[in-house]
Write a structure and sequence with these properties.
Order of helices and strands: HHHHHHHHHHH
Strand content: under 5%
Helix content: 55-70%
Oligomer: single chain
Radius of gyration: 22 Å
Amino acid sequence: MRAASLRPLLRPALPVAIILLVALAAPLLPLADPVKQDVARRLAEPMAGAWLGRDEFGRDVLSRLVWGARTSLTVAFAASLAAGLIGVALGLLGGWTRHLGAALSVRCVEIIMCFPPVLLALLVVTLLGPGAATLILVLAVLYVPGFARITQAEVRSVRERDFVEAARAMGCTTARILLRTVLPNIAGPILVQFSLAVAAAVVLESGLSFLGLGVVPPAPSWGLMIRGARATMEQAPLLLVWPCLVLTFTILAMNRLCDRLRDAVDPRTASR
């Protein structure tokens, strides 16, 4: 993408960059231990040393919000990256070759889209047990079909182009054509799909953790914070407000960045 097309991405990318930097810098920030309990001061209101108050176990809410961002974003990026690598590989295979095996590989992956995400999570958690690793596996499996379908469609649209035919005429191997010629020309839609997968994974991770199918307590997670605050929302309603605000702001920021990234990749979809 040209520099001029990247300028509209700067403003929506700024809040996302701030969120990522705060999450990465969590070990360096002067924050309290996010899992240390102080039952004597449970449900305490905001005060010096605990600027957003304390939760139902006396843990610092601000610290858990920052560390929860680190947990949620780590799960989201790891799952999206794994899904992207597998899905793009299957999409390249299915879009480039015309034999039955390549088509069946993509069609078999699309069967996953028939399963509701929560039911699939219940199945995997029952077999493997809850935890961040299980959550990454579930989310990666759910997002592989999206990457595979987009990659396959884009490969089919460019495999007969002149620059691909020129690479064939030069005697390049199939692997070299796919990795050095085809993949760079379809990277835009794949990048947009990756950003959408990360944003969706943050929401799904919080939802599954809220249901007890994701991150295991006492590890900090926005979904676990919402789950814990629900039982005490009459005594301390702010405990429910903070994680909901942070989660909403993160998703809105990521969705706005996804919209601008889509417009930069395909100017025909640009809004006024």
